[in-house]
Amino acid sequence: MKTMSHPVLKDVVLLGAGHSHVTVLRMFGMKPIPGVRLTLISREVHTPYSGMLPGLIAGHYGFDDAHIDTGPLARFAGARLYQDEVVDLDLAGRRVICRSRPPVPYDLLSLNIGSTPNTAGVPGASEHAIPVKPIDGFLRRFEALQTRVLARKGRAAVALVGAGAGGVELLLAAEHRLRHAVRHAGFDASGLSFVLVSDVPNILPSFPAAFRARFHSILAARGIAVVTGAPVTAVETGRLMLAGYGPLAADEILWTTQAAPARWLAKAGLPLDPRGFLKVDSMLRVIGQDDVFAAGDTIAFSDRELPKSGVYAVRAGPALADNIRRTLTGRSLRRFKPQREALYLVSTGERHAVGTRNGVVVEGAWVWRWKDWIDRRFMRKYNDLPEMKVAPAALPPLADREALKEISAIAMRCGGCGAKVGATVLTRALAGLIPAARADVVVGLDAPDDAALVDVGGEKLSLQTVDYFRAIVDDPYTLGKIAANHAL
Ligand SMILES: Cc1cc2nc3c(=O)[nH]c(=O)nc-3n(C[C@H](O)[C@H](O)[C@H](O)COP(=O)(O)OP(=O)(O)OC[C@H]3O[C@@H](n4cnc5c(N)ncnc54)[C@H](O)[C@@H]3O)c2cc1C
Fold first, then answer.
1. ipTM of the modeled complex
2. Position in ligand 1 atom list of the atom nearest CA 47
């Protein structure tokens, strides 16, 4: 963590290191507002990039290729990074409630916390299926799945529920990886079977027919069965119960169904749509809350429904950063205008991909290389950060007049708060004092030390000191823990 050289006048707290917030951090790092402190609260320090997740599962990428390390990014932005899980908000008190640390106050809040596949409505799903999100949990559980498959000498039935682009791509990646691992271990890979299950009549329902047709052929060529129009009614050990179809044997079950919002949003008192997503206006501001913004999968956008896709979360990043900046500096906000049609490049397990935009479909190894180039370029923006020259301190262009008035007073206090009087001066000053004789003072000014020891009655003595050190981290809670550790 970096200690700010300016007094902190406004606290901007970012919840979740999603695709939009990494852009907010980068943009504030490139152009900070003096007096504004960012704090990122994220469940994990390494945030996954969804575009490269299937490639990570397939074995084409390592962990670092597919994750943004928010540590250096937060330092670049001069932001504090708190690794914790947000469980609630205190909107009236403007505080974020975390699972493991004291509440975090904010002046301006932004949520980019994504979504998770919905296992809640299907009995047995949360016990027996592996949801693709949170991704860190999924990666660990997928490794364990592979270990189990190898322990069974490659004889396993793998089912994936949810046939959107993420599900189809993930199953093809898993098939590629598991068949390779089974062969590599010297077993017969024909003992592995795969099935894609969907409740709607067709796979990839929001994509053009030609794109869908390509994936039907690819799945068939790889021996992956497809069961559509069969909602899962229950998940039991070793099988899925499907409406209108009956039981389907499955030793391993992956779950990538429709995105569901975080459940704690409902109790936080924010405005939600009927499915529980956060209602935001066209400026990405939460309806009725001037000091709360949101972007990515977690929002219900007022202008039109946006696909729950990383592409839209990425695109929202610059608009979100701009509107946070505009709010802080008292300028009118700008509308976020998401694109109508996005380019989709979906990989097929090997280094091969199919792409579509505006109804045109392309395919081949070159499409995979194109996707790889786009994804790596995106990651470089956050993992290879530019060297920034330290700009001279400028007067904060903050909107708040009271904040401006505070600057001179705070700046004066900051100049002296950590300074110490030299030992000679201190000894001379103390020499003029006549210590009062008190039975409860065990160590006092007659034998001066760094601390006084006072008998307060009972079993414990009280140790008191004014010998503090300056904050070495910009987080009072962490500094308190460090100080306590040193004292013990
Ligand atoms: C297998 C798969 C492949 C996909 N491939 C693509 C693709 O190629 N292209 C594409 O556009 N989309 C893809 N998607 C969709 C994409 O994953 C999501 O749309 C995208 O991740 C949403 O981004 P986001 O910024 O809203 O949230 P996320 O990327 O999910 O980020 C949210 C962040 O918030 C953190 N967080 C969540 N809750 C809390 C909390 N309570 N406290 C603290 N931190 C919290 C999380 O840890 C995470 O870091 C894919 C999805 C899947 C499942």
1. 0.96
2. 49
